[in-house]
Each structure stands twice: as structure tokens, then as C-alpha cells.
Amino acid sequence: MADASATPTPEQESDKPIPQNIRNLHIKAQATLERSPDLAIDMMLRCVAACPWFLQARTDLRKAEIARYLRKHGGKVSASPFSGISASLQRMKIQGLLKKDKVAEALMECENLLKNDPLNVHLVKLFAETAIQAGRSPAGLMTMELAREHIPAGDTDAIATLGRLYFQTKDYQKARECFERVHRAKPADAEIAKLLKNAEALATSGQWETAAKAGDYRKALKDEKEVEKLDAANKSVKTAQDAGALIAETLRKIEKEPKNVNYYLALVNLYLQQKDHQSALDAIDRARAIVGQDPALDLRYADVRTEQLDTEIAALREAGDEEGAAAKQAERDQYVFDDIAERVQRYPNDQHLRYQLGEQYWKYGYPDEAIQQFQISQRSPKDRVMSLYLMAQCFRQKGMLDMAVEQLTGALEQLPAMDRQKMDVYYLLAEINEQEGKLDEASKYFKEIYRADVTYKDVSDRVQRIYEAQKAASGNA
Fold first, then answer.
1. Distance, CA of 463 to CA of 461 (rounded, Å)
2. Nearest to 146 by CA among 386, 417, 425, 420
3. Looking at the structure, do residues 326 and 455 belong to the same domain, yes or no?
4. Can you give the residue range of the structural domain that contains 254?
5. Contact 377, 354 (CB under 8 A)
6. Which of 7-16, 140-149, 185-194 comes out lowest in average pLDDT?
């Protein structure tokens, strides 16, 4: 009998190389996609069947399936009969395969279902849950996120499902964002409220553990036992009574050690879990009074204040006060702009703050001021690409197209892989070339995007229009 331990786990398989013949098949599928989508999809299915860990092939497969579906249905998501008994039987079959450790077979069963109906919420959820159970969380989240772009914004069940998947894979920040959206739509849903509270507790503790790397006072946070103790306190909050007890306990600790900033940070998290933004802001101010000028605490204050304003806006809209919500939105926007500008004055060498200020200037139509900030923020490796990209947008707005192209060319040097950022750069280059009447150059960039992702913006229509313009030009020559 074969030794069961010899079978590689999904995690082990994820490190396995992709055989060259499968890579060649994937490349051939990409080249075939434009002229024969059905054939390309079949090739990509063969790739993931042979190598379930080949995430790029699975991602390209899903994008191609979605693009084909949308073309067939006129860009709309149609209702699907896959639910009820049919769904239950299919789920049982897939669960049976997983229990037998037949991971690849279970995933292919899901793939065969998704092939012609990739935007069906039930099927997407089934695949995502199967992928996560099989140890392939990235594939599950990828499928859910691609589908989510086309699922109606009011489909709170789909958003809640995505939130649960994020929570399951310990991405608590994204889980919180999903649960917040659902909670605004369904404030009386106790389960969603609980999930949101748990995600907030885990997300905020994680954020502070990361932020703790800057500033002298954060040396105390390096004490692992203290961090674990604070995390355990945050995670134990289940009711308002629990929170009140923990807040009272933390306040007693502050009385004993009034200079221990860790206690103030714990207090901030506890207040935020209760949506008590003002008390959280007061606690941050007390911490700032202890440590003095501190960029991390300033950022924390700005985040909480913005969240407070967002909560007030949501409440006004829920009450039907659109005029009040609009006024509060204007107040929020002004606060964000003023806060970033003030922090740039306090920390002029913070290149990321410079980038954020440039974004604000660009957003409100001040291209010269934005360019000045982006020229500084482009020195930061983290913000270089987006600084160059937005600077190109500014130059284009000013009619300086050659300088816009120069910035985009610089951005491309930092983008070896065809990801979303590179497609954004290509798209803007194509628009500028089209604006200048250089249809061949524009066509080149649009086609590069089309080969990578036919669902990107309106690239499919753009390519078709350029073909028609080129055909008309050659006919008139």
C-alpha cells in the first residue's frame, strides 16, 4: 500500500514548478484568446487540471470566462437556476471528494460548473469555499473578487460571503470593510454586527502592531507578552458590558501608570469597538501629550476622525437627510485635505504624505500644485509608480502630452509584470496616442491590455473602434 504521507499537501504543491509544456499551453491559450475564446478557455482548463497550483492560469481562465459570459448576456448578470436541490447535491459531491483528499478533482468539479456561469453567486461561493478548504485560499479569493466587480452593489449576501472568506484567511482589514458595507445596509442583523465587531478587534490590534515600529515609546510594544495580553483583551469583547469592564480596567491601569502609552492605545481600540469615536480621539490626544509630536499617532487621529465623519454621513443618509449628508461630506473632504496639508508641514520629509497631498490637489483640480508634490513623492519606491502616473495625468490636463508620456515611460520601467497598474499606464498611453492621432501606437497599447484582460474598462470596444478607424483610413487612402 502506498504511504499516504508521500502525497504532497496543497501548501507543498504551491511551491512546485510549472512544467514547461503547461507553461507553453498557457501561453498558447493567451495568444488564442482574442480570435477563439472558447478554445482558449478549454486550454486554460487543461492547464489548471494538470497543475491546480498554477494560479495565473486560473486567474486568466476566470477572466476569460467572465468576459465570454458578459458578451453573451449583453453585459448583464442573468439569474441562474443553480440553487436548491441541485446546489445541495453538487456540494455533497464536492465535499465527498475533499474528504477523500481528491483536491484536484473537487476543484475541477467547481471549474466545470463555473465554466458557463462564472458570475453565479452560489457557484462562486461554492468554488471559493472549496478552494479554501483545499488549501488554495488565493484561488478562492481571486474568484470571489473578480465576480464581485460584476455583482450588483446591493447584493449584500455576496459581500457578506466575501467578508467571511477574508476573515477565514485572516485578512481582517478587508473583512471589516465588507462587514461595514453590509452593516450599513442591515443595521439590525445581529450576526453581521458580531462579525464586524470581531473583525474590527483583530484588524485594529494588527494595525497597531505594525504601526508600533515607529517612535521611541513603542519599544514597550516589543514585549511579546504585553502585546498578547492586549490582543487577548481586545478579542474578548463580546458585549457592551464586557467592553465597559475592559475600559474601566484599562482606565485603572492608566491611573497607576499614567505614562504607559500602550494602555492608551488599548483604550482607543476598545472605544472604537463601541463606535465611541470622540472618546477614542480624546485617548489619542492624551497619548500625544505624553510622547509629543509623533507621525503614527497623528495618522491614527486622522483615521479615527475620518471614520467618525463617515459614520455621521451614513446615519444622515439612513435618516433620509441627503442635504445634511452632503454638508457633512463636504466637511469630511475639507478635513482630509486640511489634515494632510498640516501633516506635510510638520513632516516635510515624509514622501508618502507628499503623495497623499498630491492626490488631494489632483482630485480638486490643481495640477501645478499636484505636480510639485508628486515630484517629491516619486523618490519613494512605494509611491513612485503612482506618482509618475498621476503626474502624467496632470501634464495631460495641462496639454503637455510629451511630458505626460515621459512620466508614463518612467512608470513602465518599474512594472515588469502585466498587473492592474501596468494596464492603467498602458491605457493612459493609448488614450494620449489616440488623442494625437497616432492610431497604430494607441492600438499597440490597447491590444497589450486586451491580451491580458479583456474585461478591463472598455478596452474591447476601444480595440474594435481602432480596427474600424484603421480600416476606414486604408479604404480612403
1. 5
2. 420
3. no
4. 211-345
5. yes
6. 7-16
The amino acid sitting at 472 is: A
pLDDT at 88: 62
Judge whether residue 377 has pLDDT over 90: yes
Within this chain, do residues 223 and 335 fall inside the same structural domain, yes or no? yes
Single out the residue in 345, 371, 400 at which a domain terminates.
345
What does the DSSP assignment read for 198-252?
A: HHHHHHHHHHHHHHTTSSGGGGGGG-HHHHHHHHHHHHT--SHHHHHHHHHHHHH
Q: What is the DSSP letter of 78?
A: P
Backbone angles phi, psi at 204, to 5 degrees: -65, -40
Which residue did the predictor score with more confidence, 262 or 233?
262
Spatial distance between the Cα atoms of 230 and 228, rounded to a whole number of angstroms: 5
**Interhelix angle 55-72/103-114, nearest 10 degrees:** 20
Average pLDDT, the chain: 81
Residues 142 and 16 in one domain: yes
Alpha-carbon distances, residue 287 vs 26, 150, 190, 264 (angstroms): 55, 44, 34, 6
Per-residue pLDDT, 216: 40
How many alpha carbons lie under 13 Å from residue 85 in its C-beta half-sphere?
0
* Kind and range of the H or E run holding 35: none
- The CA angle 311-333-177, to the nearest 5 degrees, is 40
Q: Is the pLDDT of residue 389 over 90?
A: yes
The total number of residues written for the chain in this structure: 477
Cα–Cα distance for residue pair 446/430, rounded to 1 Å = 6
Percentage of residues of the chain with pLDDT beyond 90:
35
DSSP output for 133-190:
HTT-HHHHHHHHHHHHTTS-TT-HHHHHHHHHHHHHTT-HHHHHHHHHHHHHH-TT-H
pTM of the model: 0.54
- 355 contacts 380 by C-beta, under 8 angstroms: yes
User: Has residue 97 been placed in a domain?
Assistant: yes
pLDDT, tens digit, 9 for 90 and up, residues 200-252: 777 755 554 444 444 444 443 344 334 444 444 444 444 556 777 888 888 99
DSSP per residue over 91-122, as a string?
A: HHHHHHHHHTT-HHHHHHHHHHHHTT-TT-HH
Structure confidence at residue 145 as a pLDDT band (50, 70, 90): confident
Q: Return the residue matching grid coordinates 493612459.
A: 428
Decide: residue 369, CB within 10 A, 0-12 exposed, 13-18 middle, 19+ buried.
middle
